[in-house]
C-alpha cells in the first residue's frame, strides 16, 4: 500500500509492504490524537470559537431538533449551526466564528495547500510506479515534507513493532477441526491482552 497525507504545508508519503515494512498499526503513534472537547466546557465555559460551534452542533441541535439527525451537507442545517454559534460567541465575547470555520469544525476539515498536495501525490505516484515496474528501489518507508521550513524533505526508516497485533508473529494454536465456536472462545481466553 502506498499511503500519503497532507495538513497545511506538511505532508507524508510511505510504502507499506506486508511482512517487510511496518504496517499501518505499527506507526499509528505518528498521528496526532483527535481533538475532542469535554461537554462541560462546551456547555458551561466556552473559550474558543470552536467551543461555540461544537456547542451549537452537539448540544443545541439535539435540544431544538429532537430526533432529527444533523446533516453536515445540508446548507440549511449548517447555517442554523453557524447562527447559533455566532449567538453563543457573542454572549461570551469570543471572536472568530465564521461560516467557513463552522464548516471546518463540524466536518473536521483540515486546510490543504495545493502545492503540498501535488508534492505528496507525486511522491505516492512515484512509489507506485517503482513497485509496479521494479524500476528502482522503493522509499525506505516514510517520507516527511515540511514546506513551511523551506523545502525540507526527510526519509525515515521505521521498524516493525515486534509485538504488533496486525503484522506481528501472532500465536500458533492447534485445534481439533471439530471444535465448537464456544470451545474455541474458551481456548482463546488465556491469549487476550
Automatic annotation (TrEMBL):
GO terms for molecular function: ATP binding; NEDD8 activating enzyme activity. Its EC number is 6.2.1.64. It catalyses: ATP + [NEDD8 protein] + [E1 NEDD8-activating enzyme]-L-cysteine = AMP + diphosphate + [E1 NEDD8-activating enzyme]-S-[NEDD8 protein]-yl-L-cysteine. InterPro entries: ThiF/MoeB/HesA (IPR045886), ThiF_NAD_FAD-bd (IPR000594), Ub_act_enz_dom_a_sf (IPR023318), Ubiquitin-activating_enz (IPR035985), UBQ-activ_enz_E1_Cys_AS (IPR033127). GO terms for biological process: protein neddylation. It is an enzyme of class 6 (ligase). GO terms for cellular component: cytoplasm; nucleus. It comes from the Eukaryota. The active site is at 40 (glycyl thioester intermediate). Catalytic subunit of the dimeric E1 enzyme, which activates NEDD8. Belongs to the ubiquitin-activating E1 family. UBA3 subfamily. This is NEDD8-activating enzyme E1 catalytic subunit. The lineage of its organism: Eukaryota, Viridiplantae, Streptophyta, Embryophyta, Tracheophyta.
